[in-house]
Amino acid sequence: xxxxxxxxxxxxxxxxxxxxxxxxxxxxxxxxxxxxxxxxxxxxxxxxxxxxxxxxxxxxxxxxxxxxxxxxxxxxxxxxxxxxxxxxxxxxxxxxxxxxxxxxxxxxxxxxxxxxxxxxxxxxxxxxxxxxxxxxxxxxxxxxxxxxxxxxxxxxxxxxxxxxxxxxxxxxxxxxxxxxxxxxxxxxxxxxxxxxxxxxxxxxxxxxxxxxxxxxxxxxxxxxxxxxxxxxxxxxxxxxxxxxxxxxxxxxxxxxxxxxxxxxxxxxxxxxxxxx
Length: 276
What we know:
Blueprint (H helix, E strand, L loop, with lengths): L75 H4 L21 H10 L5 H10 L33 H5 L2 H27 L2 H8 L5 H7 L13 H5 L11 H14 L19
């Protein structure tokens, strides 16, 4: 902030102002700079003075009397392409192409080198450069003028055939033809076969389900395994039934009563009677 009686200095538009501590690094910190009135925000870059000209200087040629008509017509150098101008930029021919690491890797593998140290030594002793772009032959595929690219258009929907149910009638006709052909084949097979083969065709397949229906292996009902000490000594501490008969009757009554109760186990409230 500028103060009265003090001329503006380089630290006037900074965070501490003219009266605070000053360091040269404050002028290079964008966060400590303040905006000037009617001027764009400063980015704390040190730029050259007002007399500095940006760009690359052109190299001028001094024309002499030996140039002949150039002294008479000064526009001739411009018409001839300014041949007096010398371009110092490196041309494409002078540029060193980059190393072709793909070819180097292929050659190293062909030589039987696998490890990274072997590849490093091979690249140090062999130098393969990439070809310039103007020397690479690009193979362009020529297409005939009548070729069309893209996806083919979907055919239009046959509205009249849909309204006439033509696809349904076609499917029904094909289905009838298939059934008739299958029926003719069955009649042909049954007419040429004997009575035994007919009985054989009438019999069902001898599947696993058919075998299980005819016979089931007897299974002995065994109690689940339990440690002997728990089977004898581990008895319940509380028995609410007087005897085994009372317990059995209670479970039978529960099975009958669970029909009218709600819940998966039949232990809920009673359901109301439903009207048909």
